[in-house]
Design goal:
The protein is mainly α. The chain has 4 helices and no strands. It has one domain. The longest helix has 18 residues.
Length: 77
């Protein structure tokens, strides 16, 4: 899976996830699937990615943007 995700990141021109980010995102996806609704999971991850890109556009690093967006998600889970 890691190789495929690395290829996907390169193909779409974004930074790849660190191992820690991947684990946190998988945990968030699990929480959405079980705590909100299963079919909301891919939609939520898309919105999270869009929010990370928005924050990067506002000058944050990828790591800072990811951390901020994930913290925001935790406030509603």
């Amino acid at each position: 899976m890691d190789d495929w995700l690395e290829r996907l990141a390169m193909t779409v021109g974004v930074d790849q996830l660190t191992d820690e980010q991947a684990e946190e995102l998988l945990g968030a996806a699990r929480d959405v699937a079980h705590g909100v609704e299963r079919k909301a999971t891919p939609l939520a991850t898309f919105l999270l990615g869009a929010a990370v890109q928005r924050e990067i556009g506002h000058g944050r690093t990828h790591a800072e943007a990811f951390d901020q967006v994930m913290a925001s998600l935790r406030t509603i889970l």
